[in-house]
Structure formats: C-alpha cells, structure tokens
Amino acid sequence: MASNNSLTEQAYSININYKVILVQALVCVFLCINLFLITTFFLKDYFYTTTRYVLFAVSLFSDCLFLIMTDVLLILSYFGLTIQMWLCLIIYIVLSVYTFVTPFTLTAMVLERYVAICMPLRHAELCTTRTTLHLVLIIHSLSSVPCVVIISIFFASSALSFYTAGRICSVEMFILYRWQGHLRSAISQFYFLIMCVVIVFSYIQIMKVAKVASGQNKKSTWKGLRTVILHAFQLLLCLIQLWCPFIEAAVLQVDFMLFINVRYFNYITFIIAPRCLSPLIYGLRDDLFFQAVTGRKTTTMTDCMRIKLFICCSGRTTTSNM
Fold first, then answer.
1. At 52, is the pLDDT very low, low, confident or very high (cuts 50, 70, 90)?
2. Which ranges does the record mark as transmembrane (predicted)?
C-alpha cells in the first residue's frame, strides 16, 4: 500500500514538473518575441510618434511585466518558497494594475482604428503624441483603481508585524473580507461592460464604412475591421481571466486535483495565450512593422515616406468627399 502511494506521488510530481517546464518554455518564447518587437519599436522614429504603435508598445511592455510576475509567483508557489510580505505586496500591486492595463490598451487601440477609419479628417488632430501620452496615463490611472481600493482596505486592517512575516506569496491573501472580493468583481464587471460597449460600437461603425467604401479604401477598411475583431477576441480572453478566481474557488470546494488542473488550464489559455496575439496582430499583419521586423528596406523615417502617407491620406479624403 505504501509502495502504491509512493508511486502515485512520484507520478504526480513528474506530471507537475512537465507542466512547470512547459510554462517556462512558453513564457521564455513569448518574452523573447515581445522584447524583440519592443526593440524594433524603438529603432524607428515613425513608430514612437504614431498612436497605434505607441499603444502596441505599451501592451507589449504590460504583457512582459505581467508574464514575468505571474511566472515568479508560479515558481515560488511550486517550490514552496516564502518571501516577506512587503515584497509580496509589491508583486500584488504590479499584477493588479497590469491585469487591467492590457485590456484598456486594447480598447484604446480599437478606438484608434475607429477614428482612423470613420473620422480620417480628424485622425491627425486627435491622435497626436501628446494625446497618446495622456491616454497612456489615463489607462494606468483607471487600471490602478481596483488596486488602490483593495490595498487601502488592507493597510487599514492589517498589523505592522504582517509585513515582515515570511509566507508563500499569493494575491488572495490581500482579500481579507468576502465583500472585498465582491467589490473587486463589481469593478471588473463594470470595466468589462464599458469595454464591450466600445468594441461593439467601433465594430458597427467600421462595418458601415466598409459597406460604402470602394477600391483601396475598401481593402484598408476591411483590414481595419479584421484588426478590431482580433482585438475583440484578445480582449475577451483577457476579460475571462477576471472570472477565473471565482471559477477556481468553486472548483476547489469539489476536488483539489481538479482545482490544480483548472488553474493550470486557465493560466495557459487566459493569461499566456492572449499575450501572444499582439505580436501576431501588429508584428505580422501590419505592413510597416513587418518590414521593420524582417529587416527589409523601409523609408518610414524619411521625408519620402511621409510624403507617401500624406498622398494616401489626401486620396482617402478626396474619395470620401466625392
């Protein structure tokens, strides 16, 4: 009997090892891709003076930071390593903020596509570098609201000795009361509703423009529409992540092994997978960025490219006026 238990524990350990190794491999691959794209972003002047590329870089940075922090928590939890709670608090703050930064950034990118396609005459006026920086600050401010609420309640309720204690770090330990979880859920659902309204509104408006567009404008509009759809799918995966703690808490009451498997599935599907879609959407589908990534000769930093872009915009304006 003891021998059978030993074999079961060994098989369970090997299974978990495979899962942890797979996560490390996926995280390393996505981090390398994202860091390469971030480096490419800073190599071209045109990219960090254009709203959609700045937002793309913000989402890449957010994804990298989020993947690193969640992977650190996974390793600490797997090996049972304890850290002081003040350090765990810093990790929780970063994770709490950047859980919402990516969805908000995706929503802002959809709005940028809406402005570019449905209001081309005002795109240059609305999507300036200064406006983009303000938008990034607004994104981080809104993303900080749930964290500020939870941390404020935690500071008011916890003793000073708690911060120097060594424990296995988990984000759940900062939720001291059940109503805190309900409050966090309410804020998340409110954000989810706002983002869904923005996505649906932008999709409908772009669809209307796509139906009446012709020629090159029609091709560009439909490409923008497909980008919005990809962003919507990516945003859906990110927002499902907000529901995962409630699903996992319910499963934990049923079976612990099932809880581990569900949590692993959620981590792969709703945390890692959405973070690999941004490189696909802009790293491969966007012509200028793809040229920069593949090292092809591009003139985006020259006056010739700017003149070409101006001619294209002028052509769109003439078509829309006709």
1. confident
2. 20-43, 55-77, 83-111, 132-156, 186-207, 228-252, 264-284
